[in-house]
Design brief:
Blueprint: H1 3-9, H2 13-37, H3 67-71, H4 85-105, H5 109-132, H6 137-153, H7 163-192, H8 199-212, H9 214-237, H10 250-274
Helix pairs in contact: 2-4, 2-5, 4-5, 5-6, 5-10, 6-7, 6-8, 7-8, 7-9, 8-9, 8-10, 9-10
The protein binds zinc ion.
Zinc ion binds at residues 51, 53-54, 56, 76, 78-79, 81.
């Protein structure tokens, strides 16, 4: 470990959590930009943030995450147009998730950074899927590539020591996740005579396997089917969507993956009991 890693790993938990929350709030702000611009094919860097109502540029001192929205009480400082509370909620959500990742992986800074990247990708996929019914390739294909590369660089992600063992575990996980969901989508199409699963979901599960291995794929498939079905029933009961209505599946894969990232070792204990 480098000197920096040693220093970082020696930080007490409350400081790690506060640091994670701060970084998360900033990335939550960036997340709103990505959710809006990526599906529209716009650059996430330029132009700088501006009010969607009056077009005025937002100066840096009014672009602090969380505090700016609260200080301006959710209104543009120039024209008074309402700024959606979704910005505030995304900043708070990302702050909370980054803090949890810091608390869990702070002893290993490279792993913590990777955890933040995964959380950011899952959030991006979730909210784009909710709005557009698509999962951006940057999340799914990018996740598969990063998952394989990170596994070779940090084989400890898979409990391995040699780079080729990490790479192998990742490749098996990718093939398993991709193959399994592809099979489900083909069977689903044959049975229901309509697209039950999009190809984006297939690629996303490939990325899950690339990062976490085949065991995670099984757990995430189980969790996402369960939460997805419950959400579907709840929406039908509320009369929001009938049987023909579509619910994107990506957010439930993301939810299951988040559970595995933060509590996977508890779920992995099931596998131990089953002798897998
Ligand atoms: Zn304005």
């Amino acid at each position: 470990m480098t000197v920096f890693s040693r220093l970082f790993a020696a930080l007490p938990l409350p400081i790690l959590v506060a640091w994670g929350a701060l970084v998360g709030a900033c990335f939550g702000s960036f997340l709103s930009v990505c959710i809006w611009r990526i599906p529209r094919g716009e650059s996430v860097v330029r132009p700088r943030s501006h009010c969607p109502a009056c077009g005025k540029l937002i100066p840096w001192y009014r672009n602090f995450p969380v505090v700016s929205w609260l200080a301006l009480r959710g209104k543009c400082a120039d024209c008074g147009a309402r700024i959606s509370p979704r910005y505030l909620l995304l900043e708070l959500l990302t702050a909370a998730l980054f803090a949890l990742v810091a608390a869990k992986f702070g002893y290993d800074p490279p792993l913590m950074l990777l955890g933040w990247v995964i959380v950011f990708g899952l959030e991006l996929g979730t909210f784009v899927d909710l709005d557009w019914y698509i999962l951006p390739d940057r999340v799914t294909v990018g996740g598969m590539v990063l998952g394989v590369a990170a596994s070779a660089a940090m084989p400890r992600m898979h409990g391995a020591y040699a780079w080729h063992d990490g790479l192998l575990a990742s490749a098996i996980g990718l093939a398993f996740g991709f193959g399994l969901l592809w099979l489900v989508s083909v069977v689903g199409k044959a049975v229901y005579k309509k697209e039950a699963l999009g190809f984006g979901d297939v690629k996303l599960m490939g990325a899950v396997g690339a990062f976490f291995g085949w065991r995670a794929v099984v757990a995430v498939l189980f969790l996402s089917s369960l939460t997805g079905s419950l959400a579907g029933l709840a929406l039908m009961a509320a009369g929001k969507r009938g049987l023909q209505g579509r619910i994107p599946y990506g957010p439930f894969i993301a939810l299951g993956t988040l559970a595995w990232l933060l509590a996977g070792e508890w779920m992995a204990a099931w596998y131990e009991n089953l002798g897998l």
